[in-house]
Design a protein that fits this description.
alpha+beta, Phosphorylase Kinase, domain 1, 8-stranded mixed beta sheet, 27 helices, globular
Length: 738
């Protein structure tokens, strides 16, 4: 079907593209799209855009269209022949966001990013026109605002002036402006829909006195109000409304566009309050209301505690690192073109504890062009760290240049950070006379030697060491339970993709911090191999087992090395290592468990051809005709008498992200005793540890597999289970506070 891209008829190509949008495999769709959408092929006319909007596009399809648009819109080397294609793609996003309200915000973000950052003026102008089309279409969908409603309890008519109430601190000259905007526009309806993920309210949904407005502050030529909306049946909503006083239209639009770009990013969570909508006729725009203290207020409160400011001193490294990372992140999201000109403590809202997420910049109104990394580093010291120490002298020496370097490296990544800092030091033979360059040289040497320690990992390890220091020789089980809790609470699993050494580094900085020289060197070697990509997937298990075989370990060291390899093991689980002689020499972990009758058995992979043969016999006895192949793996349950009770055979597919569960069997006398359940759960645990993301199985006994989270998805044959989503559910328990 993709060959139809070469067809002479435009109509044929359009029909073919619509079919492929619905049927093409995700992995091939991007390349297929490039074959159809070329500069000399005007496929995306208005009729085609309408057809795609009606047909609907999946998340992956939209991502493919956006990737193509990015390549065209952000390239310096694309000629004018690409302008028509860029216009068509941007028009598609505008039409799609207007036709599909749930896609309005991501489409708006993309268009605004093009409008701000595209190198070619003509493309920026196309994006600006598309933004207006998108907004107009979306507000048409929102519909008009009712001026009069009827109270269902009294039958009496009421209007907006009876609904809106003002706090005494709201200036008199702003009250009629706010009431007029609420009465004449959909400013409340739009904001509630966008921030509540789908709630639509009208005047009739709000009782008299149901809207309360109070002043939050006045700064940068505008006033900011908190608007609380109490509905009859949909709960309460809080939004923020900005009222412009002295800003020019250009300044307003600039701030709004930076809010949109900074508030939503593929690289991370919102950095500022999410933007709602701008109503130029009234000089107002809505934002998400975020509760929480600015850093300046938080530090003032902590300094007044009766502990003599000790808590502020203890938290300052986290607060400084988090706030500075937000400032650097704004620079990153601006395409590294702009910096915050006001990175002060009053302009940042931070979480109170180091295991929480959710830092926000209060205002991006004051910005300045980025002129170089050296200048930015010194400005962050001058405008953030130095004023903090001046206000709280006890903080002097608690953090230094290294926290600025760490915040930059955390945002740009370790590899690029090393490169950028290296370029900054290049040609400077003697850095001893410059405190910043001297500190940077030392920081860079440590990172090159041991790797960068991300913020969450740093503070998770620090909290563990503080807990262990305060405890009275905690047991290995208590230490393992605390390790697991901190690993989950700090969301360290999310770091593994960028920092594959995360788990080994966490153990090295905690339970193995005082390890003997041989074990310490072995762990450092593992960290280096993980950083260098020499160990991937379940190869870490073999590497740890090899380390164990070379060293004389005490019981505690052996206990924690086992849990280093297999993160899902509970503190009370008993586990041992044995050697496999099946195909290749390797170490295999054995988990000791109990069935529902209390009888103990072991779960591990088959170690010998004899055990595989016995498992095959169980399948034959169950009248299941199976075909074992070289690529298959065999997870078995074994009794205390070394009898095979049951097993699973499966395959990890090429690439390591997908696995296929072929069949499971349990010997007749041991069925309905929990053996199969433990086999299934052990399989999922081991697959997750190996980095497998999805596991599929055939459409046999679907009701049984539904109970383990399998489902039917159109992209997969048979049944599929998403192991990544299962991990995210655990991580979602991590707190967010701002």
């Amino acid at each position: 079907m993709s060959r139809a891209a070469m067809a002479g008829s435009l109509d044929v190509r359009r029909v073919a593209l619509r079919v492929l949008v619905a049927t093409e495999h995700d992995g091939r769709f991007g390349e297929t799209l490039r074959r159809f959408l070329t500069p000399d092929s005007p496929l995306l006319d208005e009729a085609m855009r309408d057809a795609l909007c009606s047909q609907g596009l999946s998340h992956n399809r939209l991502a493919a269209f956006q990737k193509l648009a990015r390549e065209i819109c952000f390239a310096d080397d694309k000629g004018s022949e690409y302008d028509e294609l860029a216009d068509s793609l941007l028009a598609l996003f505008a039409a799609y966001g207007a036709a599909h309200p749930v896609c309005y915000r991501p489409m708006r973000t993309f268009l605004v990013r093009v409008n701000l950052l595209a190198p070619k003026k003509h493309v920026r102008e196309l994006a600006a026109a598309a933004i207006l089309t998108l907004r107009s279409g979306f507000r048409t969908w929102l519909g008009p605002v009712a001026r009069i409603a009827v109270d269902p309890e009294t039958g009496r008519e009421y209007q907006w002036r009876e609904v809106v109430a003002f706090d005494d601190e709201v200036p008199e000259n702003d009250r009629p402006r706010l009431l007029a905007a609420i009465r004449e526009t959909a400013i409340l309806r739009e904001a509630v829909f966008l921030f509540s993920k789908g709630a639509l309210i009208q005047l009739s949904d709000i009782p008299p006195g149901g809207v309360w407005i109070r002043l939050l502050g006045e700064r940068h030529g505008k006033s900011v109000y908190r608007v609380t909306i109490q509905t009859r049946y949909q709960g309460a909503f809080d939004i923020a409304i900005n009222v412009n006083h002295d800003m020019t239209e250009y300044e307003v639009l600039e701030e709004i566009h930076w809010l949109i770009v900074s508030g939503a990013s593929q690289a991370g969570p919102p950095l500022v309050e999410d933007f709602g909508g701008y109503w130029s006729g009234h000089g107002m725009w809505s934002e998400e209301f975020i509760s929480g203290e600015t850093l300046s207020r938080l530090m003032l409160r902590l300094s007044k505690r009766d502990d003599g400011g000790q808590r502020l001193n203890d938290r300052w490294p986290f607060l400084a690192w988090t706030a500075l990372s937000a400032c650097v992140d704004f620079w990153q999201r601006s395409g590294r073109r702009w910096e915050l000109d006001d990175p002060g403590m009053h302009n940042i809202v931070v979480p109170t504890d180091d295991y929480m997420t959710g830092v926000r910049i209060v205002s991006v109104s004051t910005r300045r062009p980025h002129t170089g990394l050296d200048t930015m580093i010194r400005a962050l010291r001058e405008k953030f760290l130095d004023p903090a120490v001046e206000a709280y002298p006890a903080l002097d020496g608690r953090v230094g240049w290294d926290v600025i370097f760490s915040s930059i490296m955390e945002i740009v990544g370790e590899d690029e950070g090393i490169e950028q800092f290296g370029e900054l030091l290049q040609g400077k033979e003697d850095v001893s006379s410059d405190p910043m360059l001297k500190a940077l040289s030392e920081f860079l040497s440590i990172v090159k030697l041991r790797g960068f320690l991300p913020r969450r990992l740093f503070f998770a390890a620090k909290r563990y060491r503080r807990w262990e220091h305060l405890g009275e020789e905690p047991t290995p089980q208590a230490r393992a339970r605390t390790l697991r809790e901190f690993y989950d609470t700090y969301g360290l699993t999310a770091l593994v993709k960028e920092y594959p050494e995360t788990r080994v580094r966490f153990f090295r900085e905690t339970v193995f911090r005082e390890a003997g020289e041989a074990l310490a060197d072995g762990l450092e070697e593992l960290i280096a191999k993980l950083r260098g990509g020499e160990l991937v997937g379940d190869e870490l298990v073999d590497a740890v087992a090899d380390l164990r075989s070379r060293l004389e370990l005490d019981a505690d060291e052996d206990y924690f090395l086992t849990r280093l390899s297999y993160p899902y093991l509970r503190p009370e689980d008993r586990a041992d290592f044995v050697h496999s002689h099946l195909g290749r020499q390797q170490s295999e972990m054995v988990v000791n468990v109990e069935d529902l009758d209390g009888n103990r058995f072991r779960v591990r992979h088959a170690l010998t051809p004899k055990e595989v043969e016995r498992l095959h016999g169980l399948f034959l006895a169950a009248k299941l005709d199976v075909r074992f192949r070289l690529e298959h793996r065999y997870l078995v349950a074994i009794s205390q008498r070394s009898q095979i009770l049951g097993g699973i055979y499966y395959e990890i597919e090429e690439g390591g992200q997908n696995a296929h569960l072929e069949k499971i069997v349990v010997a007749e006398p041991y069925r309905r005793k929990g053996v199969a359940d433990r086999l299934m759960k052990e399989l999922f645990n081991r697959l997750q540890s190996a980095g497998v993301e999805t596991v599929t199985t055939g459409f046999f006994r679907p009701q049984y597999f539904y109970g383990y989270g399998f489902s039917i998805e159109k992209r997969y044959a048979g049944l599929v289970k998403n192991l990544v989503e299962e991990e995210k559910e655990t991580e979602s328990e991590r707190g967010e506070a701002i």
